[in-house]
Amino acid sequence: MARLGLAQGLATTFRRLTRRAVTAQYPDVKPALPARSRGVIALTEENCTVCMLCARECPDWCIYIDSHKEELPPATEGGRPRSRNVLDRFAIDFSLCMYCSICIDVCPFDALHWSPEFEYAELDIRDLVHERDRLREWMWTVPPPAPVDSGAGPPPELTSARPADAEAAGPTGARAARTRTARAGAARRAQADSTQPDAVPPAEPGAAG
Amino acid sequence: MTEILEVLLRVVGVLAAFLLLPLLVGQTEHKVMAHMQGRVGPMYAGGFHGFAQLVADGVKFAQKEDVLPARADRAVFRLAPAVALVPYLVALAFVPLAPGLVGVDVDAGLLVVLAVMGVGVLGALMGGWASGNKYALLGGLRTAAQLMAYELPFVLTAASVAMAAGTLSLPGIVEAWQPWWLLWQGLGAGVFFVAGLAELQRPPFDMPVADSEIIFGAFTEYTGLRFAFFLLAEYAGIVLLCALTAVLFLGGWHGPVEDALGWLWTLLKTLALAVLVIWLRVAYPRLREDQLQRLAWQWLVPLALVQLGLTGVVALA
């Protein structure tokens, strides 16, 4: 019995010797990361409206945002001048970030995205605070969204952006319309007797509320 | 003049073999062990599959601080690595590669090699005693116990093959060797090889340096070049054991085209045995101290005696 075990030990190691090693040659060969890998948070600062949702929702408060207001001249003669938020600083402290993805989930304007880039280690922990220019650079490494699974419904990004006439065309289309924007559009369209769908302007998000 | 030149040539040849073969075995161990474990081993040093890893290791060891423990027995502590290393160099000079291709040809070569190999183990014992460290002392004592237990079957089986050949000269033994000796002396070959492994403290017989229990046994306090010497001694020991097994039991230079390629056959048999040493290390877990002693006294010594009796009966018949 013991002798059999000894032979089995030798056989196991020899069989392993004849197969390819499982080692990943990391610095030479980049790892094949799964879709939606959480490497680093990238920022599209053009989309940011300084709504501060991400900074407030962040569980460990690692997002720093500074901004100021800018007055825009009225669009029409005699109108009210509009004010606009201008982003001065957007920084994420990756020594605090725990990669929970809450900031990315709450961002209403798709300004934050996950990038699979992970090689941004630093020798000093204080150098892990990355400012907006670095975050903007990472935006180029964000992959296109992974295709939805077969059998899944249409993604809400598409249904919410669909023109109003397509939603009113049938009961399935109306059921698919879930967002407030789409509901408001459908309601207005029913009131307008549905003669000229193209003439109905897309409703502003804030108009219904 | 030509005599001096010849001696010089032989000495240089032995020295070259002593410096190259252990490195070759070490590198083979790096790669073979890695692949047996599903890894790839060193890949960078030297460029091609890390072939210069051991050179890099040597450079690293040379740069390290030479620490001498405060409570060490200084002279013995300093001398121990040399005592561990030099005997293997001496012993290697007596191992014949091919007819006439041997460092020193003496009539009692086998006796000299066995005696000198026993001295090599003393280096670990000296280091363990001189370190002033309880783990080193435990390791040294385990080394001593192992040496006592395994030297007996080691020498008995070597005596068996010497009896069969009727000579103590290593080239003489190879000359007398016949292929059917593989059967006749097979048991002895196994006992000799296992006992030799245990004397070298190679896994699975590495209880004296069991790192999970006593750090690194007798070598615990050693750093830098002195430690490197101990490591080199281990690999030189593997080379010597494998060469001896090949010469005594596997027919040395006997093989196809032995007139031209005899030296190659000896080297190939040695290397194949070295790979077996590595293989055993990967496959088997470490034996406990009591299991070690039981294997020696309850199995290897009786088997060696059986082999000795068998040899005597067949030789007289």
Question: What's this model, at a glance?
Answer:
Chain A has 209 residues and is α+β, with helices and mostly antiparallel strands. In chain A, 30% of the residues lie in helices and 15% in strands.
Describe this structure in words.
Among the domains of chain A are: 40-141, Alpha-Beta Plaits (2-Layer Sandwich), CATH 3.30.70; 156-194, no CATH class. Chain A is 30% helix and 15% strand. Chain A has eight helices and five strands; from the N terminus they run αβαββαββααααα. Chain A has helices at residues 2-18, 53-57, 102-106, 132-138, 156-161, 164-168, 171-176, 180-191; strands at residues 40-43, 63-72, 82-93, 112-115, 129-130. The termini of chain A are far apart. With 317 residues, chain B is mostly helical. Helix content of chain B is 72%, strand content 0%. Chain B has helices at 2-36, 53-63, 74-92, 109-130, 134-165, 170-176, 181-184, 186-199, 211-214, 224-249, 258-283, 289-316. Chain B is globular. The N and C termini of chain B lie far apart (49 Å). At the A-B interface, α1 of A face α1 and α11 of B.
- Proportion of strand residues of chain B: under 5%
Q: Under the CATH scheme, which architecture of the domain at 40-141 in chain A would be assigned? A: 2-Layer Sandwich
Q: Indicate the percent of residues in helices of chain B.
A: over 70%
Tell me the number of helical segments of chain A per DSSP (H or I, 4 or more residues long): 8
- Report the mean per-residue pLDDT of chain B as an integer: 87
Structure summary, number of beta strands of chain B: 0
Domain module count of chain B: 1
Radius of gyration of chain A from CA coordinates: 26 Å
H/E order of the elements of chain B? HHHHHHHHHHHH
Q: Helix and strand succession of chain A?
A: HEHEEHEEHHHHH
Could you give the distance between the termini of chain A? 80 Å
Oligomer: heterodimer
How many H/I helices of chain B? 12
